[in-house]
Every structure is written in structure tokens, then in C-alpha cells.
Design goal:
With 370 residues, the protein is of the alpha/beta class. The chain contains 16 helices and five strands.
Length: 370
């Protein structure tokens, strides 16, 4: 029987955790007849650096993991691979030429860039002090009262002005270019993740699109929806407090990719305090954020259409809303200034203090309980 290696390349915030949890269940159910490996991110980063520098032993970790796989159908996965086409190409090449795989499939998922950024903020950026302070600096330089905006609004505004978007088409073109020497043996597949408006079974799609045959009748029972998220009080409290700290002031808050388990335990202590956020939407009208998201959707529309054409993806996933309008930098600044004029700073500062206090109380209880 021919052997197939599937390299799941993410991307981050594109249902990777859900798919990885599902694949782990499949691996356990098939008891050795299906191989699955969640790759070590630190080892991948070291391998990428060693490959770039042409160091001896650069492929030791990759080779060790591929050698362990003895099944005819194998999936290796990590969401950071989508940003590392050279590393993906090296894995595919060695799988075919050194580890007796007849076929390699590179599989990745995407999402609308505006949604991607909102999700990334709620996972990482709200505790990334460097990014938070850069956003505050931008508002100061433009003469905008940064305290009248949420950290997420500031983050979206900075992104809207910067012009730096996640370009899925460019990502996949780089992946294609990296494996063109393996034409006929390597396939690249991709799709937008399921949405409420356009749903589908992620696991079933992954299995079908990669051409695997698992022999499991009820895949739906293994289709995990793993979408653990931080409490809004924690997100707003941490980002609000951290934004006001000087750059040289230390903080005990975990940064991006740090302390997730501790933060989730703090969230457990906030479950009965939802009333603290009751005034959020009144103080921070969604109109400003919506205009920024619509702008981002318009700006990425052409690149997204090219991605859909390249990867045969339903373009409805990336369709901007009917009211979406692409705005000039001056128009964006004008909307921000108008929004600031409509908001009351003292009321916002009082609200922020109450949210910060709720978070600090929960964090303190978690600290003294351990």
C-alpha cells in the first residue's frame, strides 16, 4: 500500500486546536493504523534556523519524528508551519526521498483577515505590552485621546493605517514554489474554516481533501469544537492597565504564549462577574470598530479573490459586507476623531477601573490559593 504524509500547516487562529484534538481522537481510535504527531514548536524554530544556516544536524528533529511514523497514513501538525514554507518544503522532500512516503499533502486553513485579527487580539495581543504601547504611541502622534478607545480598537486602527494584512494568496504561492521540484508527488489544499453562515465538518473536510481513507463510519463524533477563550473582563482589564504602564515598568502579567493555564484559572474566578461588563457596548459604540473591520475586508478583497481562485475556495467566505467601504488614511483619522468627541473620558476611566479591579481581585485570589 502507498504511504501518505499530510503536513497540516495551520494557520494560527484557524481552527488548528480543534482539528488537532480531532486527529488525536482518530489516532487513538485506530490504534496504530493512523499516525499523528503534534510537532514541537521550539524544535521547529531551531530546525528552521539551522537549515537557513546550513548547520550540521539541522534535520535531526524532523528526521527523528518522521522515522517514528510507521503507519501508511500519517499527519504531522503545527500551526506555525504556515509561515515557514522553506521548512515545509524540507519536510516534504525528506519524507519522500528518505522515509518511503509516496505522497505528501500540505493542508492549511484560513479565515477572513478582520476576523483573524480580532481572534488574535483576544488570544495574544491584549497582553503584548510592546504592541499595546506602540498603538498608544500612534494615537499620541496623531493627537487622538487614546484612553477613549479600547485596546482592541487601537489595535485595529493601527492595522488599518499600516496596510499590513495576512495575505493568504502570497502564503500559498510560497508553499507551491517550495515544493515545485516535487511536482506529481506533493499536493497543496486549503479552505476557509467553517462559519455559522457556511458551516461544514472540519474533520470530514480535512480527511476528504487530503485523500485519506480512515475506515471510520462516524467521523462526526470525533469532530471537536475546541474554542476556549479568555473572559472579557480579563482581556479588557489586562489591556487597559498594561496600556497605561511605562515601557520600563515591569508587570507580572503573562505575555503572549505564556501562562495560559494560570490565566484560564483566573477566568474561572470571573464567571459570576459578567455584570461588570454591562456598560461596555454603551461606552464603546460598535460603529467605530465595524467601520475598521469593513475597511480591512475591502482592502484584502482582491488578494482574497486570488487566493480563492488559486485554491478553489468558495469566495463567499471572504465577501465584504454590503456597507463595507475602503477609506483613506485621512478618513480613518476623521472617524477616530469624531468617535473620540462622542465619548466621555471620565465615564470610560471609571469603567476601566472597575474592570481592572475585578481582574486584580480574581488574580489575587488565584495567587494566594496556590
Amino acid at each position: 500500500m502507498s504511504r501518505t504524509l499530510v503536513i497540516h500547516v495551520g494557520a494560527q487562529k484557524c481552527a488548528s486546536s480543534s482539528l488537532q484534538a480531532s486527529l488525536k481522537l482518530v489516532h487513538q481510535a485506530l490504534n496504530g493504523r493512523f499516525g499523528y504527531c503534534f510537532l514541537n514548536p521550539a524544535q521547529l524554530r531551531s530546525a528552521e534556523l539551522a537549515i537557513a544556516r546550513k548547520k550540521e544536524g539541522a534535520f535531526d528533529y524532523i528526521d527523528r519524528e518522521l522515522k517514528r511514523q510507521v503507519a501508511d497514513q500519517v499527519v504531522i501538525s503545527h500551526e506555525m508551519l504556515g509561515n515557514r514554507p522553506a521548512l515545509v518544503s524540507a519536510i516534504a522532500d525528506r519524507a519522500i526521498h528518505l522515509f518511503s512516503f509516496d505522497r505528501v499533502v500540505i493542508s492549511g486553513y484560513t479565515r477572513l483577515q478582520s476576523n483573524y485579527h480580532v481572534s488574535a487580539f483576544a488570544q495574544w495581543y491584549f497582553r503584548d505590552r510592546k504592541r499595546l504601547l506602540l498603538d498608544v504611541k500612534l494615537f499620541r502622534e496623531l493627537g487622538l485621546p487614546w484612553r477613549k478607545f479600547t485596546a482592541q480598537e487601537r489595535s485595529l486602527f493601527a492595522l488599518a493605517l499600516s496596510g499590513k494584512d495576512r495575505n493568504w494568496c502570497a502564503n500559498y504561492r510560497r508553499i507551491y514554489a517550495g515544493v515545485k521540484h516535487l511536482a506529481g508527488q506533493v499536493q497543496v489544499v486549503s479552505c476557509h474554516i467553517p462559519t455559522r453562515r457556511l458551516p461544514y465538518s472540519l474533520l470530514q473536510h480535512f480527511v476528504n481533501s487530503t485523500g485519506m481513507s480512515l475506515g471510520i463510519g462516524d467521523l462526526a463524533s470525533m469532530d471537536v469544537r475546541k474554542n476556549q477563550s479568555f473572559h472579557p473582563i480579563l482581556i479588557h482589564g489586562v489591556s487597559s492597565f498594561s496600556s497605561g504602564l511605562p515601557a520600563n515598568r515591569q508587570s507580572f502579567f503573562p505575555g503572549p504564549h505564556e501562562g495560559n493555564r494560570w490565566l484560564f484559572r483566573v477566568c474561572d474566578r470571573l464567571v459570576d462577574k459578567d455584570n461588570v461588563m454591562a456598560d461596555f457596548e454603551t461606552l464603546f459604540s460598535q460603529d467605530f470598530e465595524r467601520s475598521l473591520l469593513n475597511h480591512l475586508d475591502c482592502r484584502t478583497a482582491d488578494d482574497n479573490q486570488q487566493y480563492c481562485d488559486l485554491m478553489s475556495v468558495d469566495s463567499r467566505y471572504f465577501q465584504p459586507s454590503p456597507e463595507a467601504v475602503l477609506k483613506t488614511p485621512e478618513e480613518l483619522k476623521g472617524i477616530a476623531a469624531q468617535t473620540a468627541d462622542e465619548r466621555d473620558l471620565k465615564t470610560i476611566e471609571a469603567f476601566n477601573r472597575s474592570v481592572e479591579n475585578a481582574f486584580f481581585n480574581a488574580a489575587r485570589l488565584e495567587i494566594i490559593s496556590s
